[in-house]
TrEMBL record:
InterPro entries the record matches: STAS_dom (IPR002645), STAS_dom_sf (IPR036513)
PROSITE patterns from the UniProt entry: STAS (PS50801)
Domain STAS: start-end pairs: 1-66
Species annotation: Punica granatum (Pomegranate)
CDD domains: STAS_SulP_like_sulfate_transporter
Name this protein carries in UniProt: STAS domain-containing protein
SUPFAM superfamilies associated with the record: SpoIIaa-like
Length: 74
């Protein structure tokens, strides 16, 4: 999301619907590298918890989280 400077309610609704559709397919949505304006709107609207809280400040942080989860012993 590094190129996204702002987000409106229509886009937030679309993200929420995308997250629901992905979850039904067994896939989690992760948001990485949002600008502060976008991050603020996502948090104020409570969308971060609706998409499972998988919000990362950098792409590296997102990848590290994914790799840690996938490599963790069961």
């Amino acid at each position: 999301m590094s190129n996204l400077v702002s987000i409106d309610t229509s886009a937030m609704h679309s993200l929420e619907e995308l997250a629901k559709n992905l979850i039904s397919c067994g896939v989690e949505l992760a948001v990485a590298n949002p600008k502060w304006q976008v991050l603020h709107k996502l948090r104020v609207s409570n969308l971060t918890s609706k998409i499972g809280g998988r919000l990362f400040l950098t792409v590296k942080e997102a990848l590290d989280s994914f790799l840690t989860t996938k490599l963790a012993p069961l």
